[in-house]
Amino acid sequence: MAKKIAVLPGDGIGPEIVAEALKILSFLNTDMNLDLVFENALIGGAAYDAFGTPLPQITLNLCKNADAVLLGAVGGPKWEPLPHAVRPERGLLSIRSELNLFSNLRPAILCPQLVDASTLKPEVVSGLDIMIVRELTGGIYFGQPRGIRLLENGEQQGYNTLVYSESEIRRIAHSAFKTAQKRHKKLCSVDKANVLEVTELWRNVMTEVGKDYPDVQLTHMYVDNAAMQLVRAPKQFDVIVTTNMFGDILSDIAAMLTGSIGMLPSASLDASGKGMYEPIHGSAPDIAGKGIANPLATILSVAMMLRYTFNQPAAADRIEQAVNAALDAQVRTADIHSEGMVKVSTSEMGDTVLDALRRQSRQTSLQMHDSQSVGV
Ligand SMILES: NC(=O)c1ccc[n+]([C@@H]2O[C@H](COP(=O)([O-])OP(=O)(O)OC[C@H]3O[C@@H](n4cnc5c(N)ncnc54)[C@H](O)[C@@H]3O)[C@@H](O)[C@H]2O)c1
Ligand SMILES: CC(C)[C@H](C(=O)O)[C@@H](O)C(=O)O
Ligand SMILES: [Mg+2]
After folding, report:
1. CA-wise closest residue to 275 among 103, 108, 39, 141
2. Do 4 and 37 touch, CB atoms closer than 8 A?
3. What does the pLDDT average to over 218-239?
4. Given 235, 265, 295, which residue is the final one in a domain?
5. What is the pLDDT of residue 364?
6. Residue 373 has pLDDT above 70, yes or no
7. Which residues contact 330 (CB under 8 A, 6 or more apart)?
8. Mean pLDDT in the chain?
9. Which residues does a 6 A CB cutoff place in the pocket of ligand 2?
């Protein structure tokens, strides 16, 4: 049976980068008989403008009935005056929560061609390959109570609540340990257990779950130190597991180690492996509509979709190889451009990746032809 992908372009550069990712996915769908079908829906500010809510029921139903979701980005200055409950960002939080996408994988990999684009010295970053596992449906993003209230003395007070239950910590811990087992078996849990009781519980549960994974070396680090260590010596990390808000911040830091926030993809998974795939960056209002956004984070998110939800590692490998080939061809969007490279637009970058995929197909059919000829 065909597998359905819900496509939510969102706001700002969202539609521009999703269009490039769909070029790639549609080509592979035909080339590799993946049997995928696509259906679009509105989310974020675009949904608010059409329906008065950032997550309309029709979008939610589509996503619940889909096998995977591809999302661009949401938000922008146009919707900033709105009350929080209907802001574009709340649509994104609601879909993550409604689909139970508690495990957010954010790989920070430095492509060798972009060593010069990294903010760090080559010897500090070359070969960088770390995975941030961010808890995505709990913590301060969702804790109640929240709001802004009027105090008796007449001043306003803003408040949010950082809460984690043992079961929420335990499930992200298992997800992180399993991720580490498939990599270099090193897991660093990042918290603020010296100050926040909730993350003392986080640390205790991580340690307890760690007993089920004796092959994984577990360490703990405070978040302020982790931010510093990511910039000082990022290759000390293999897998990092952390809370919703700390993961949000640390992944933007890690993005710059890879050259640009436009390079970092993500997978947000539920317990069954169903997932939503999106770049970690936002709607980039400052460059929206200019055709200069980097689509590679979204294209690489599609590779994660093929690997994690559709169990198509060969198709995922092809995308990653094609992205490498595009970088080898020295084309660069503005955010990763450096002297001597060819500056390209969003769609030209997508086309270059597509050309590389086409070349792979031709090479494969030539090889098949050659081996058949030899057989004759
Ligand atoms: N997942 C999401 O949908 C998501 C993530 C982050 C921020 N946001 C929202 O996006 C809006 C803008 O937020 P922000 O400016 O803080 O963060 P942002 O990630 O949108 O942009 C930060 C900077 O990075 C640049 N940038 C981002 N993506 C890029 C790309 N693909 N190619 C080249 N440059 C890129 C932007 O031009 C900007 O200078 C806000 O409304 C915010 O809430 C949404
Ligand atoms: C837009 C916002 C809700 C979102 C988050 O904080 O999770 C974004 O920053 C991200 O990293 O996906
Ligand atoms: Mg973020």
Report:
1. 103
2. yes
3. 98
4. 265
5. 80
6. no
7. 113, 340, 341, 342
8. 96
9. 75, 89, 92-93, 248, 280, 282
48 is catalytic: no
pTM of the model as a whole: 0.96
Residues 74 and 22 grouped into a single domain: yes
pLDDT tens sequence across 166-181: 999 999 999 999 999 9
Burial class for 32, CB neighbours closer than 10 Å (0-12, 13-18, 19+): middle
> Binding residue per annotation — 185?
no
Gap from CA of 198 to ligand 2 centroid (Å): 21
Shortest-distance ligand to the CA of residue 74: 1
Residue 145 lies in a domain: no
Q: Is residue 28 part of a domain?
A: yes
> Is the Cβ atom of 16 under 6 angstroms away from ligand 1?
no
- Domain, as residue range, for 107: 103-138+164-265
Number of domains into which the chain is organized: 2
pLDDT tier at 365 (50, 70, 90 boundaries)?
A: confident
Ligand 3 centroid–CA 45 distance in Å is 17
Catalytic residue among 11, 164, 192, 335: 192
**Does residue 84 sit in the same domain as residue 231?**
no
- Whether ligand 1 lies within 6 angstroms of the CB of 278 is answered as yes
Q: What is the ipTM of this complex?
A: 0.99
**What is the rounded CA–CA span in Å between residue 49 and residue 41?**
13
Report which DSSP code applies to 79: G
Residue 248 annotated to the active site? yes
